[in-house]
């Protein structure tokens, strides 16, 4: 599949992406910022794609970390390897695994697990004819229940779990978190404009009950003009 090279100057990153396959969006930057705000030394990403999220986290944080990246699709995994090698992470160790996350055991117990998961039920809505996009966007191989079950069975009592999701799935996430006897520690509601309702949310899940924290993040202050906070997240200087 043909690729192109995207440069993210603010973070000194260059990433290959498949021209007609799954491509990253602002969701990746938001998730990276959300995770980078947590204290951790060992992170595990499920559905790593081209590697954008973990590479951004590595750039956003100062201390040495251990990253384990899991990607089931061979086409994306090949890009992942290429991008990690191209960007030569400054200080951290990266372990890359071309495996199905539902059946994988972490090489080390992570402090935090994070994912930009498929948003859409495979039985609903239009499915892309592009297989790479379809798997990345629809719950064909991976759904919330399987992710929560994996998290409970394969991580430590202090391991946290973070997602970025579309707002229409918020109540479903709350219900499933409660069903699995887990706890929501933090939610950031993401609004396109200050006077608009949120269209995305970032959620932090814990096995232990913590004081609940709620925040809002606005993307644009006017048409096509990012807020100062989002400029910072995107590395726009």
Automatic annotation (TrEMBL):
Molecular functions (GO terms): N-methyltransferase activity; nucleic acid binding; S-adenosylmethionine-dependent methyltransferase activity
Pfam short name (any one): Cons_hypoth95
Superkingdom per UniProt: Bacteria
Classification via SUPFAM superfamilies: S-adenosyl-L-methionine-dependent methyltransferases (SSF53335)
EC number assigned by the record: 2.1.1.223
Listed InterPro entries: DNA_methylase_N6_adenine_CS, SAM-dependent_MTases_sf, tRNA_Adenine-N(6)_MTase
Gene Ontology biological process terms from the UniProt entry: methylation
PROSITE patterns from the UniProt entry: N6_MTASE
Class of enzymatic activity (EC top level): transferase
Keywords: Methyltransferase, Transferase
Name of protein: tRNA1Val (Adenine37-N6)-methyltransferase
Native organism taxonomy: Bacteria, Pseudomonadati, Acidobacteriota, Holophagae, Thermotomaculales
């Amino acid at each position: 599949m043909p690729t192109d090279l995207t440069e993210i100057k603010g973070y000194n990153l260059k990433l290959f992406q498949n021209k007609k396959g799954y491509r990253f969006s602002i969701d990746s930057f938001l998730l990276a910022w959300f995770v980078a705000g947590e204290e951790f030394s060992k992170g595990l990403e499920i559905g790593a794609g081209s590697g954008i999220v973990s590479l951004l986290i590595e750039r956003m944080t100062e201390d040495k970390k251990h990253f384990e990246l899991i990607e089931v699709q061979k086409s994306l995994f090949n890009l992942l390897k290429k991008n990690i090698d191209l960007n030569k992470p400054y200080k951290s160790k990266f372990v890359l695994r071309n495996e199905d996350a539902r059946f994988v055991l972490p090489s080390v117990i992570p402090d935090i697990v994070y994912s930009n998961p498929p948003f859409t039920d495979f039985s609903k809505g239009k499915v892309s004819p592009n297989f790479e996009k379809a798997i990345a966007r629809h719950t064909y191989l991976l759904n919330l229940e399987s992710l929560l079950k994996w998290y409970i069975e394969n991580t430590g009592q202090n391991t946290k779990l973070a997602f970025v999701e579309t707002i229409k799935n918020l109540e479903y996430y709350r219900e499933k978190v409660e069903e699995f006897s887990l706890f929501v520690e933090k939610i950031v509601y993401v609004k396109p404009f200050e006077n608009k309702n949120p269209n995305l949310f970032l959620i932090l899940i814990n096995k232990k009950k913590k004081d609940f924290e709620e925040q809002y993040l606005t993307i644009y202050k006017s048409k096509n003009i990012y807020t100062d906070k989002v400029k910072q997240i995107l590395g726009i200087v």
